Amino acid sequence: MKIVDFAPGDPRLDSDLLPVLRELRPHLTPHLFHEVRERGQAQGLRFTGAYADDGACVGAAGWRIIDNTSSIRKLYVDDLVTAAGARSTGVGQALLAHLEGHARAEGCRELNLDSGTQRTGAHRFYLRERLDIVAFHFSKELADEAERG
Question: What is the pTM of this model?
Answer without folding.
Answer: 0.90
